[in-house]
Amino acid sequence: MSLLETRSLSIGYSQKSAPPKVLQKDVSLSINPGEIISLMGQNGVGKTTFVKTISGLIPKLGGEVYYQNDQLEHLSANDLARRLSIVLTEKPYSHNISVLELIAIGRHPYSNWMGVLRAQDKEAIDWAINETHINYLADKKLYELSDGQLQKVMIARALAQETDLIILDEPAAHLDLYNKIEVMTLLRNIAQKGKGILISTHDMQISTQLSDKLWLFNFNEPVQQGAPEDLILDGTLEKTLYLQDYGYDMIHGSIHIGMPENGTSVALEGPEDVLFWTTQALRRNGIKISQSAHTTISCSQREWIVRSSESSQHYTSIGELLTYFR
Ligand SMILES: Nc1ncnc2c1ncn2[C@@H]1O[C@H](COP(=O)(O)OP(=O)(O)OP(=O)(O)O)[C@@H](O)[C@H]1O
């Protein structure tokens, strides 16, 4: 049974004295237990609107949303909070509460009418704090946290809620690489235990390395979905994100950011890792890599030899090599 399913869902906003602004229509998608899905698309395409619509925070324009076969409209706020936890990019309303108090809010759907925490609530809170490695922050007030620390705390709050489905809007936006990898690994482990995870993101590493599936939103086009690797190889990802003009590198899943070519071209040879970084540096400086060029660079771990018909020059770093072309 799907944890979440949308059937012919239309999302967007009603407007006074004008037809509704429809951002996406006919969206039929589902998340199964154990899946991590990344929702991607350009700015303004409707990702946050989709997340808010399926969470019942804003009204849909048409179609249906189901949680384990129950229609969203038929679930009470408490029922929904036991099935779905959300980490939005918006900051919490009050910054004057402690990390522990915020995470305890995640237990609200389970605690009694006075909000008293039982042993199992405390266990869930401890588990969430341990999994996100934020023990050292537990007693701090939210206003004392950095953006990245607050982000991990918000993830811990969602984990403490112990729902089968977790939705995260840009979970790594404020995280350094180490913490991002930690959170990605954590999400993978949680998914392996049978939870479903939906991430709205612009982060190519999260979407293509972490996710089982991508949902790609585009303007005035049907939603595309599939394994990231399939959508990369058939060109769908490149097209949906409008990367064609920037030379999307399908082999490394990265973009070439460089100067316009300046008329210089070189042929390169050497070990793969050195070639990769040498290529990046040369392209950034407008130099074209062409195996038929007259100038050749032979790379090794510590030496770059530039050979042309007139000369042969030795360099011991990429930084030095670039001086040859300047
Ligand atoms: N409350 C609102 N009323 C009317 N239009 C809105 C409202 N909120 C957002 N929009 C518009 O809806 C469109 C989609 O916004 P949304 O935030 O869903 O995009 P997004 O895909 O999440 O973008 P981003 O990648 O920039 O976060 C935008 O054009 C935005 O201006």
Outline the structure in words.
The chain is of the alpha/beta class and 326 residues long. 32% of the residues lie in helices and 26% in strands. It contains 11 helices and 17 strands. It has helices spanning 47-54, 77-83, 99-105, 119-131, 147-160, 177-192, 204-210, 228-233, 236-240, 272-284, 318-325; strands at 4-15, 18-31, 36-40, 62-67, 70-71, 84-87, 165-169, 196-200, 213-216, 224-226, 248-249, 254-255, 265-269, 288-289, 295-299, 304-307, 312-315. It has a 6-stranded mixed sheet, sandwiched between helices. Strands 14-13-15-16-17 form a 5-stranded mixed sheet. Strands 2-1-4-5 form a 4-stranded antiparallel sheet, with helices on one face. Strand 1 (4-15) and strand 2 (18-31) form a beta hairpin. Helix 3 packs parallel to helix 5 and helix 4 runs antiparallel to helix 5 (147-160). It is globular and about 85 Å long. Residues 13, 23, 41, 43-49 line the site of adenosine-5'-triphosphate (ATP). This is ABC transporter ATP-binding protein. Keywords: ATP-binding, Nucleotide-binding, Transport. Residues 6-244 form the ABC transporter domain.
In short:
The chain is of the alpha/beta class and 326 residues long. The protein has helices at 47-54, 77-83, 99-105, 119-131, 147-160, 177-192, 204-210, 228-233, 236-240, 272-284, 318-325; strands spanning 4-15, 18-31, 36-40, 62-67, 70-71, 84-87, 165-169, 196-200, 213-216, 224-226, 248-249, 254-255, 265-269, 288-289, 295-299, 304-307, 312-315.
